[in-house]
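Q: what sequence does this backbone want?
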């Protein structure tokens, strides 16, 4: 304690100031106004407007701590002096004395407060003239009575108008606190008014808002759930799942209603997931962390007496029908999976095996064959194809067509086979589609030349398989003539007005063979078509056939031409113009297609024909338009493309009419070998067209 003088008007007054006064006893030290909120950075004092105090503390309930007689004497004298001084005189704003009869007498408390304010005192000040509560000590901040928390002697105390409060709830810094009977902010778990609360153990002192807190209750090991300091009723997420609480007490097994949904907690109080059988009924609580009860769907264990206790539910009901499960479809009746049997669904017929699975593919059921597809549709459909049905022939396989055993040809494994009542036949003659065929000892339709019963026959090389009659035929080995019964002729024969000779195996003897069709020799340049070799060759072919020869304009109008025309569809370019640095032509396929059945003839694309096929056509009085390079050069990226007419054969070579009439002249002879090389390697630049292009005019 020390005396401090201050001037009041013209008089000096002594003030006793305690800077180390005790709040609940002696030995405490004074504190600065810079004390902070618990566990926070420095914070200014909480003003009266910022706080709400729920406890009223009397100003006259605490006796001043004991002092020495000299202190009491000094304090009394000072008090008397101050009182006398205050009563005797007043000063105006300029410090002049004013007669006390002219102003209201100021109380000693007001005078003391004014004195403290003028001194800007801070701390726990002995000031009984202000309040005698708590031994006359009051808390000042910068000369003003303070309301709020102040940290002192290792904890926080709550003051209202400078007076330390005792037990009660406090609001500060946006938090809720509680002070005990000595005015100290409490920590840890506290029982207040029969209610347990938790204020932390980290020197922050505020009431925790929620959590599963130990309060010593008789349930669940003394733990209950608090929310904002109150015992909570409802779900709370804890330790990885949801638990249900009533008045803070965790409940165990039972149904719960929350958030507009229905839930169930097990005997540990945890909200359940998945499917559960409860009181003999099955429920689905999901597997996605939502926990609510929803209609049961799927193959669910419900303890039934069949199929291991599993049944199928759909929207909560036992299901009848097909359901897709584990990679296939199963059939259920009242939720129970059925085994082997026929099933009707979606307007189709199905069959399930002894495991209840819908079957696919072909199946023999009760001695009959059925097809259930291999495309994941499973329904029974008319059987088609080479199907195993357990028959006694061909390894048990027979051919079905639209559910019926089939008689006739069917294409299978790269060729045609002949079936009778589904059974594949072996070697023999077959009649179909108005033609005659032959199958070998494996049942396959034959092609090309084939020996049958001592004679040779020809069945084509183009995948048509039928026997040729009354015509010249050819392969790489020779030229032949198939008679009216299909058998090759031998010896000397008069065919189409020409005598020819065949060897004993049916091959044509080409020695002395001379074919030379009379024809017009035409020059494309002279005819005004420097790019029109295809049309001029066709004109010469018509003349060789004895037909009327139309104009080139008529021919190319029929073919179609222009720079926007593809050579696969007509003539690309202008046949009546000069070269334009690119190939101008019409390819063999388009040429034959556009001129067929025009101008009194038929035309056929025989691209790929070899020398023997050309000879066979010439023997049949058919000239051939052939794609032969104009300069007898191929490759090298140069444009050698040209079209000419083969009109005859002599001495192992072809007679050719050239519409360009190059250095070889209008007509020339070329060996069949040279022709085959040139024709097989000539392709128009830039089109990727096939080589060996030829068109026969019939």
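A:
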């Amino acid at each position: 304690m020390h005396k401090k003088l201050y001037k009041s008007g013209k008089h000096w007054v002594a003030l006793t100031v305690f800077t180390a006064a005790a709040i609940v006893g002696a030995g405490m030290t004074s504190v600065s106004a810079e004390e902070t909120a618990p566990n926070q950075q420095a914070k200014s004092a909480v003003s009266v407007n910022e706080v709400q105090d729920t406890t009223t503390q009397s100003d006259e309930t605490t006796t001043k701590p004991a002092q020495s007689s000299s202190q009491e004497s000094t304090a009394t004298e000072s008090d008397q002096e101050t009182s006398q001084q205050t009563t005797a005189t007043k000063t105006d704003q300029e410090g002049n004395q004013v007669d006390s009869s002219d102003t209201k007498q100021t109380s000693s408390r007001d005078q003391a407060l004014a004195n403290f304010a003028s001194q800007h005192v801070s701390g726990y000040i002995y000031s009984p003239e202000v309040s005698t509560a708590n031994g006359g000590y009051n808390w000042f901040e910068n000369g003003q009575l303070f309301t709020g928390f102040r940290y002192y002697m290792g904890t926080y105390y709550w003051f209202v108008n400078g007076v330390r409060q005792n037990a009660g709830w406090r609001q500060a810094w946006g938090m809720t606190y509680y002070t005990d009977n000595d005015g100290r902010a409490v920590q840890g778990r506290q029982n207040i008014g029969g209610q347990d609360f938790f204020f932390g153990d980290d020197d922050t002192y505020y009431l925790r808002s929620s959590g599963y807190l130990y309060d010593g209750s008789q349930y669940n090991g003394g733990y209950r759930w608090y929310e904002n300091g109150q015992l909570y009723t409802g779900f709370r997420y804890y330790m990885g799942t949801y638990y249900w609480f009533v008045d803070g007490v965790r409940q165990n097994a039972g149904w719960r209603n929350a958030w507009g949904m229905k839930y169930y907690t097990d005997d540990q109080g945890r909200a359940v997931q998945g499917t559960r059988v409860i009181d003999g009924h099955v429920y689905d609580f999901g597997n996605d962390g939502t926990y609510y009860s929803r209609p049961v769907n799927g193959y669910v264990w419900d303890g039934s007496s069949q199929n291991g206790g599993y049944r199928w539910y759909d929207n909560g009901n036992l299901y009848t029908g097909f359901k897709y499960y584990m990679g296939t479809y199963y059939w259920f009746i009242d939720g129970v999976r059925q085994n082997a049997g026929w099933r009707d669904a979606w307007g189709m017929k199905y069959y399930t095996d002894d495991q209840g699975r819908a079957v696919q593919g072909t199946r023999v059921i009760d001695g009959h064959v059925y097809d259930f597809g291999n495309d994941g549709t499973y329904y029974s459909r008319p059987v088609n194809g080479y199907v195993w049905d357990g028959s006694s022939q061909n390894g048990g396989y027979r051919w079905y067509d639209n559910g019926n055993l089939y008689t006739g040809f069917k294409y299978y494994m790269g060729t045609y086979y002949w079936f009778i009542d589904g059974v594949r036949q072996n070697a023999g003659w077959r009649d179909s589609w108005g033609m005659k065929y032959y199958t070998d000892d494996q049942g396959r339709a034959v092609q090309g030349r084939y020996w049958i019963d001592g004679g040779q026959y020809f069945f084509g090389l183009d995948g048509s398989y039928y026997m040729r009659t009354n015509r010249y035929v050819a392969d790489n080995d020779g030229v032949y003539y198939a008679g009216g019964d299909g058998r090759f002729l031998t010896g000397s024969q008069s065919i189409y007005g020409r005598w020819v000779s065949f060897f004993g195996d049916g091959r044509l003897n080409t020695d002395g063979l001379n074919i030379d069709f009379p024809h017009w020799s035409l020059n494309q340049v002279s005819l005004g078509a420097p790019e029109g070799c295809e049309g001029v060759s066709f004109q010469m072919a018509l003349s060789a056939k004895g037909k009327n020869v139309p104009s080139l304009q008529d021919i190319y109008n029929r073919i179609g031409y222009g720079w926007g025309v593809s050579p696969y569809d007509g003539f690309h370019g202008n046949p009546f113009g000069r070269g334009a640095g690119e190939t101008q032509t019409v390819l063999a396929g388009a040429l034959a297609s556009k001129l067929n059945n025009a101008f009194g003839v038929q035309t056929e694309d025989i691209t790929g024909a070899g020398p023997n096929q050309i000879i066979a056509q010439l023997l049949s009085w058919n000239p051939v338009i052939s794609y032969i390079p104009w300069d007898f050069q191929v490759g090298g990226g140069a444009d050698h493309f040209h079209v000419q007419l083969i009109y005859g054969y002599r001495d192992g070579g072809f007679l050719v009419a050239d519409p360009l009439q190059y250095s070889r002249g209008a007509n020339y002879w070329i060996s069949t070998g040279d022709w085959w090389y040139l024709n097989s390697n000539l392709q128009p630049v830039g089109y990727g067209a096939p080589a060996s292009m030829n068109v026969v005019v019939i």
